[in-house]
Amino acid sequence: MTVRETCLVVGSGISGVGSAGLLEHMGADVVLYDSNEKLTPEEMGAKLPQGSLVRCVAGALPEEVAAEVRTVVLSPGVPVDIPLVCGLRERGAAIIGEIELGYQMEKGRVAAITGTNGKTTTTTLVGEIMKAHLGGDRVFVVGNIGNPYTSECLKTTPESVTVGEISSFQLETIRDFHPAVSAILNITPDHLNRHHTMEAYVAAKENITRNQTGEDICVLNYENPYTRDLGRRCPARVVYFSSAHSLEEGYFLEQEMIVKRLRGVTHKILDIHRDMNLVGMCNVENVMAAVAIAEGMGVPMDTILKTIRTFQAVEHRIEYVATKGGVDYYNDSKGTNPDAAIQGIRAMRKPTILIGGGYDKESVYDEWIESFEDKVKWLVLIGQTREKIAECARQHGFDRIRFADTYEECLKLCTQLAEEGDAVLLSPACASWGMFPNYEVRGQLFKEYVRELR
Questions:
Q1: What share of the chain is helix, strand, coil (3-state, %, to 5)?
Q2: What does pTM read for this prediction?
Q3: Are the C-beta atoms of 120 and 334 separated by less than 8 Å?
Q4: For residue 373, how many other CB atoms are within 10 A of its CB?
Q5: How far apart are the C-alpha atoms of 200 and 102, rounded to whole Å?
Q6: Model pLDDT for residues 52-74, shown as the tens digit of each residue
């Protein structure tokens, strides 16, 4: 972008505020815009650094502003096909996202991780491994994990590494973004209300490899049909991991051991029960992916293993909260789609009272219901999707269903239904929107309720 070019940032959350600040630092004339008519320019401006000259606009975008815009930076929650964005694109404006903007100022190497599920755990673990290797001041963990890339990119150096959790929303708007190591952990149906088709969702995920070359690495899940298929046409050197097959090359699970095989030489790396604090097969896959990514970034295996042995579960992902009255409580609020929630069920070892339901992302719930097997004693449903899920459950022969109108009512009901030796699992298979600002608030409220139980 040229100096004093007019740039429009759409969305005034932390991503948008980060983008506006970076653009202003780069010398652009910046307009921070939010379509929420309840906001005021003064409220938006209060989020910006003191002394900022960014113009703030709420409600309808004035025609005179739209006419001068040359670059549009979309926050991840803004769809690329809404009339506002389409109109600006037709006027000749370049459409990018916050990740692409941050990358334009990146000076070091990048490891980027996407996938329907497991992104946060894997990204956090890789970040900890890289910090153990390089030191905390040379590693930046950014992206969908909650830390805007645009807030960190100016701190990068040729010796630093940025580890990014990159969502499909963010990957829709990349242009030059080029990770040295990328990873796609898995692809299962999700966000179809945003992407409309599975093909478009898959294409967005695969965008992470768009600018990679044969000198780069792409870590892929051999057990997922979408990622295994990508391996045949990926521009980077592919490294597979597998939880069910012995691979000729790559990382795989052999009984209780994660194994690495390279050029015909096999090494047993770690025991999944003795050397890991994480539970569930989903986390075994996350650890394999993290090992592959970290080795691809040049980290010695000793450093990788030492970090894995001390790494604890990410908050809100199959997170043990407490045992009260002989009942174990687990917070899996990050289980925001059916496939993620399946992993939560699989990790349970006791009869389970399951909390499900929330915002409708046009998901289907058949496989989730089928994963209940004999583990789920009761399904307590809340939110917009509760009738839809209940109907699906009954079609699969599961009718031990209770409804709750409020979250507090739901939690009290679960406590009443649970008996000594049971588990209560919050793993909703749905987004939190409509009842909560985000899944973190949903999970935090669950934990607070549990900790207050006698």
A1: 35, 25, 40
A2: 0.81
A3: yes
A4: 8
A5: 24
A6: 999 999 999 999 999 999 999 99
